[in-house]
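Hi P.,

Sorry for the delay on this. The queue was packed all week, but I finally got your sequence through. Input first:
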Amino acid sequence: REVIRRLPTLQEATLRWLDQYEKGRFSVTIETDELAKQVERITVAIQRLAVGLVLLSIILGASFAMNAEGNFLGVPLASIGFILFIASLSFGSAMVWRLYRASESGD
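Then the structure:
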């Protein structure tokens, strides 16, 4: 039914294309509004994935570092691992906050 309903407009469009061809030009209009919205959504999803991977690596790295035995310059490696975890957690939190603020201002 849809094809039959659109058939006159398809015929009109074909005739317009032929007229343009005979005049030596052929113009096509492409609306990319919806495409731009989809690209923006994909960009946000990729940013969120990147932040998630960073936070995952922080958690895994901290668990390895806090279970390490030994000393480095007289400081236990577990303490150094914990300090690095806190610093990484702060950095990761800042990344999440920036991403959240960017998505809020974009909406």
